[in-house]
């Protein structure tokens, strides 16, 4: 049964051109995990962002398409595997990544935390960004002293 479900999800994902609409950002001591889902909560994807290298931006997109149950199990395993350093913590809900930026110190991730529907084109919603957030990528133990300087601010 589970293999049939996996096949159906993979086929639907390939043929329907689905897109992810809502995201949850989690963190461990060494990684951020951006968990995205489609509008119908049928497809779940994972983006892993390394936090251990303050001067490099390392991002890995998991090629697997998960079901909601599989995604919950994955998060549970990540939490259990990181218990010694504080486990997995929820950071925020968001609607997308605007991008990544680096000034003089560490990299930052810019995310959309609030949006407002302003219209539609051919039945597809168009949103404006009403609130965003800038999150420092390296964890507090890995970041350079540059992150707190006047020039960085």
Relevant terms:
153 residues; alpha+beta; 3-stranded antiparallel β-sheet; Fig4-like
Would you mind describing this structure in some detail?
- The protein is of the alpha+beta class and 153 residues long.
- It has one domain.
- Helices cover 19% and strands 42% of the residues.
- The chain has two helices and eight strands, in the order αββββαββββ.
- It has a five-stranded antiparallel β-sheet, with helices on one face.
- A hairpin with an 8-residue loop joins strand 3 and strand 4.
- The longest helix is centred in the first third of the chain and has 15 residues, at 2-16.
- The radius of gyration is 17 Å and the shape is flat.
- The relative contact order is 0.17.
- Mean pLDDT is 85; it is low at 4-16.
- It is found in: Vacuole membrane.
- GO terms for molecular function: phosphatidylinositol-3,5-bisphosphate 5-phosphatase activity.
- Residues 95-143 form the SAC domain.
- Keywords: Hydrolase, Membrane, Vacuole.
- InterPro entries: Fig4-like, SAC_dom.
Outline the biggest β-sheet: 5 strands, antiparallel
Counted by DSSP, the helix tally is 2
Helix content, binned percent: 10-25%
Sum up the overall morphology in one term. flat
Radius of gyration: 17 Å
Taking the alpha carbons of the first and last residues, their distance comes to 54 Å
The figure for the number of domains is: 1
In spatial order, strands of the major sheet run 4-3-2-1-5
Q: Structural class, please? A: alpha+beta
Averaging pLDDT over every residue, what do you get? 85
Strand percentage: 35-45%
Q: Write the element-wise H/E pattern from the N-terminal end onward.
A: HEEEEHEEEE
Extract low-pLDDT stretches.
4-16
Number of strands: 8
